[in-house]
What does this fold into?
Amino acid sequence: MRNVTKDNITDVFKSYMADDMALRTREIMSALVQHMHDFARETKLTHDEWRQGIAFLEGCAAIETEDRHEFVLASDVLGMSSLIDMLHSSDEATSSSVLGPFHVSGAPPLEVGGDMKRSFGGPVLLAEGVIRDTDGAPIPGAEIDIWQTAPNGLYASQDEDQDTFSFHGLMTVGDDGRYAFTTVKPVEYTVPSDGPVGGILRACGRHPWRPSHLHFIVKAPGYRTLVTEVFPDDDPYLDQDTVFGVRDDLVMTYVEQPAASFPEGMALSGNVDAPYLSVNFDVVLARD
Ligand code: BEZ
Ligand code: FE
It folds into this structure.
């Protein structure tokens, strides 16, 4: 096309794609460019504003390291991570939620009933539940990878004072599908806001807080792996999670229990002498 105009440029872009290109790539690139061009036309985007957008991408690339994933964070705070999750999650299974950047692979095994709290302060939280299939049957041998913040709001990978795998554990459930562990109640915390993504949050008048949560990746052969989180129903940020991770079925009541009711068969049994919290959260996995 020799005469490219603001009205035909989108069709011209599409006409330049080869006939034999991969169909899915064609579909995605056509829709992406259609929406980008429509966005520019609709907002009458200026050179300056587009340059700011490019500077944002360059800023993300400049601070990207093995431990700092600014592009993923951008996807999180723009709602793309959560939207893509929801587009592909099964209606019959427990909802999925954001993975976040603080999962560390290779967590040490944690036996059913094991303790992640160790010498950290604060009330004990007993988290337990059953990993089930969509018919309600337990899934023997399912694996649950658990991680959370310490009481100071930091993940192990952000905090020099914690061991690499502090508040991380990998549990394999028995024939009854039941997992159980003790920990401390996680606290709400802020996502990193000292980079370009923080700039977007401030420009939109948004805060960087996430409600407190436990993270789980639940896996079993023959089932879809589930990345999810559990939130307490009294968290002040439940209705304004900066990465849009909250779903109704992931919000649970943490119930205060008298010390005397602490169950047998746990690593801390016999050592809990103050009221503790408990949360019961069953996980449903969809078949592959
Ligand atoms: C997290 O929950 O760990 C998290 C998720 C998205 C962005 C930052 C942190
Ligand atoms: Fe988190």
Remarks:
- The chain is about 25% helix and 20% strand.
- The longest strand covers residues 124-133.
